[in-house]
Amino acid sequence: MWPGACPGCRRSRPPAWPRQWNTRFGAKAPRRCGGRRDNPRPAPFHAPLRCRRPRRAACLLLAGAGTRTRPTAHAALRRLLAVCRRPAGRASVCLRPRRQRRGRRTRPRGLPGQRSRPHTQPARGGRHRLHRGAGARLDLAPGLPSRSAGPEDRAHVRPGRGRGAGRMTRFVDLHGHRTAYDVRGEGAPILLVHGAEATRESFSALAEALAAHACVVTYDQRGCGESAADAGEHHIPDLAQDANDLMESLGFARFAVMGTSLGGRIAQSAALGQPARLTALVLCNTWPLDRAIADLHPEGARKLRTLRAGLPSSARALAEMFYTPAHVATHPQLADRFARAPSTSRRGLLAAETHPLLRAESISVTTLCLSGSEDRVVPSRVAKGLSARIPNSRFEPLPGVGHSAAVQAPALLADQIASFLDRSIHHL
């Protein structure tokens, strides 16, 4: 504070004030100037944009603050906001017009050549609400509207819930072990059951294609993917019970099941165990429960054992057993996946199981049997024979597709399943 300044509002005055003389008490003490802020609390001059006195803020912002000709606060703020490129409507400084003294006419304050008038922009609320502040009196462009992010702001985000298109990864406790599953799409539910050497990730492309037609549920079986492995032994009927319990925990009273390879055998067991809960059954590149694949296709089973024993050097040849050689040539990462695959001896025992009492002739659910024409693990003749044993079944070949049809031709497989589900729902 300068010497001789007013203790109330800190307005600077000459050091020598004219003292008033009282004949009774002598010299009087200088009175307060009667300014707008007659309080001993100092104004916060350290932040010009938040200063309570606009004129003092203007002096702090400009270099010529100590000169006689001090610019108005409006010009100072206008210059600062233009340099900082800050929306004028978001300035937090309080620009209140000075009160006019009695008996004296003053020029309207504001920008040169403009009249001071109140904020004339209409008040808008919601997502179009404008920030109101000094920009209203400065007649500058208003601030940006405060709104929530719209679809144009999320152009880089993939549609749907969670990772992927409509995908949400969750976990559920089934019989004491944690099971990972995904849910995609809306509509009639369908459960996808993977094979022995796969996880639910093998159904990613197929599930995304089917999500436009149905509510697709994929999961990792015991000891596969992100699901926990149990210490005890389990068999195909146990895995079928896991599938039924999973759908029951999700609140689906009735649902369709699609299984490929070993998953097709699990789907058959689910259809035989609780046929009233299934609306449709899709079996892809699989074989019946009462027969072993080694008996139905001994040459292929023998070659698979030899190639698995020679891993990782035989990874490419093993990949060509599950896919076509042309598909492996264009997707060399498939061979690396087989080379890094863990030992599946326990899953191999499940694939070799036979259940003579679980016969295909007892399946009463409407069934679609699919088989790749280039399948070297489960030939088309095996899948066609299985379809002939099921009473209400239909066989459809997949031309140019190998054993892993869900990975090699997901669009073709999705079209077959979607059309079959539509016909099955109409017949219910």
Q: What's this, in brief?
A:
This protein is an alpha/beta fold. The protein is built from 15 helices and 10 strands. Helix 1 (54-61) packs across helix 2 (73-84) and helix 9 (315-322) crosses helix 11.
Average pLDDT works out at: 73
Largest sheet data: 8 strands, mixed
What is the multimeric organization of the chains shown? single chain
Separation, N- and C-terminal Cα atoms: 90 Å
Mind telling me which CATH architecture of the largest domain this is?
Answer: 3-Layer(aba) Sandwich
What's the total helix number? Answer: 15
Alpha carbon gyration radius: 40 Å
Helix content: 25-40%
Strand order of the largest sheet: 3-4-6-5-7-8-9-10
Q: Given the helix and strand composition, which structural class is it?
A: alpha/beta
CATH topology of the largest domain: Rossmann fold
Tally of strands: 10
Q: List SSEs in N-to-C order.
A: EEHHHEEEHEHEHEHHHHHHEHEHH
Taken from the alpha-carbon principal axes, the silhouette is globular
Family: Belongs to the peptidase S33 family.
Keywords: Hydrolase
Protein name: Alpha/beta fold hydrolase
GO molecular function: peptidase activity; triacylglycerol lipase activity
